[in-house]
Amino acid sequence: MASITDCVVEGLKYPFNDIKKLLGLGGLFAVISAISVFISVKSFDIFRDTVHIVENTNITASQLSFSQLPAGDIYMVAGLAVISFIISLFIMGYQYGIVKFSIDKKSDLPGFRDILSMFIKGIKYFLVTLAYNIIPILVLAGGILLVGDSSILPVIVLISMLLFIIAYFLLIMALNNMIAYDSIKKAFDFKEIIGNISNLGWGKYIGIILFTIIVYMIIMVAVSFILSLITAMLAVTISNQALVISIVIAVIEGLFIDSYGTVFFNRVCGSIYRESIK
Count of CB atoms within 10 A of residue 49's CB? Predict the structure, then answer.
């Protein structure tokens, strides 16, 4: 049985097995990152316009009608959000493929030829993720609505956070189980999911996930430092072009960093499942 370090090291090397496919995934992340910048800018414009209207009228923000708001910006934000979500489904479908390749011990990266299949798999990935997180979401949302800013709220937040953590660890094995059998029903076969975790050992299972997350965070912190330096250099070179700089940095991060981290993490997840069924 492979050690925790072996799984993580193999995962770190795996993205370099096919740079073209890695950059293909990075292209999807780059588009989402660029869209996120535009959404942030337009959302700020909407907020600024709303504040301006409220300050110059006798009504509150809750009393504003839609006709008084910048409809063009709102429609643009909504449209961009939908596009971003659709692209995210394709990314989830690609993650599905990475895990499957890892379980099957394939050394190459998944391709992009079957777009429809990737989209369908992305929907499955999303629905299972949502299903596993729905209880903690409802607990948190319900608690906020029922108790407001009561002293009980921190307790409810803590409970919901614990539920999110439990759901997260179960979700990883659930997604792996679904992908291994290519059946969404297998994501809810709790007897088999718990059995697979027990076969690997709960300590090792949690340990490898935590270790992978720590390695991932270290990479992200190092990259964030480098990107901050690039941002500073661009700010000196391109004056008064904050939007351009933000988009350039977002594209770089999506193209190279987000794609690498996603491939790495999902490769390790597939390796975890492969070890659990030995």
Answer: 14
In a domain, 143, yes or no: no
Question: Looking at 11-25, 123-137, 172-186, 224-238, which range is the least confident one?
Answer: 224-238
Radius of gyration of the chain (CA): 22
Please report, to the nearest 10 degrees, the dihedral formed by the alpha carbons of residues 44, 49, 55, 57 taken in order. Answer: -150
Q: Is residue 48 part of a domain?
A: yes
Question: How many structural domains does the chain have?
Answer: 1
Supply the pTM of this predicted model.
0.89
pLDDT above 60: residue 1? no
Domain coverage including residue 105: 15-127+201-276
Which phi and psi angles does 65 have, rounded to 5°? Answer: -90, 160
Which band of pLDDT confidence, cut at 50, 70 and 90, is reported for residue 238? Answer: low
pLDDT at 52: 74
The CA distance from 216 to 218, in Å, is 5
Among 127, 199, 107, 206, which residue's Cα sits nearest to residue 165? 206
CA nearest to 92, candidates 110, 105, 80, 108 = 110
**Of all residues in the chain, what percent carry a pLDDT higher than 70?**
90
Q: Are 227 and 246 in contact (CB under 8 A)?
A: no
**223 has a pLDDT exceeding 80:** yes
Does 241 fall in a domain? yes
